[in-house]
Amino acid sequence: MALILHGSANSTCVQRVMTVLKKKNAPFELVPGDFVAREHRYAAYLEKNPLGQIPYLHDDGTQLLPPSGDLHKLAKFEQAASMELSQFDPSAAGLATKNIFKKRFGMKPDKEGVEQYKARLIGKLDAYEKILSHRKYLAGNEITLADLFHLPCGAMLKEQGYGFFKDESRPNIVRWWEDISSPRPGRLKDGA
């Protein structure tokens, strides 16, 4: 069965995926959407990809958020690591830059920038809540480095007084954060 790739052939992100699929001689079907009309923000698309971004790739009706052997396990890990790197980190690190690092260099925090980063992060955490409602960790039911990658910026959010990981309206994030940040054998006392 061919992979189904949702996205625009003009998108560099979609082109990256198509390049890899072609290089691997993996058959795929490109399903274009009207992303200028923000089709990727419609409920039907968000059910498949809670981050509401392109590309979205699935195999025989199974999303690349699925369990089905080592290749899928690796794909889920890569997806979760990418979410941290390109979704969570820029927003959380942006808040730290505006609130912490500017002060350390004698500059005033940028209140407008803080609100922008905060709003972005809240949107990302809404998607995380949905993802974590179906699994224990971001890449499945086993903790991975993709989860632990969140600890440094997550700790800085706590340092800034944000309660994103204690917000009862996001019980799956609360559960996940308590788990990944709690001390366990092989971890430092502060959860790292």
UniProtKB/TrEMBL annotation:
GO terms for molecular function: glutathione binding; glutathione transferase activity. It comes from Ceriporiopsis subvermispora (strain B) (White-rot fungus). It is an enzyme of class 2 (transferase). Its EC number is 2.5.1.18. Residues 70-192 form the GST C-terminal domain. Belongs to the GST superfamily. GO terms for biological process: glutathione metabolic process. This is glutathione transferase. One of its GO terms (cellular component) is cytoplasm. Keywords: Transferase. Pfam families: GST_C (PF00043), GST_N (PF02798). Residues 1-82 form the GST N-terminal domain.
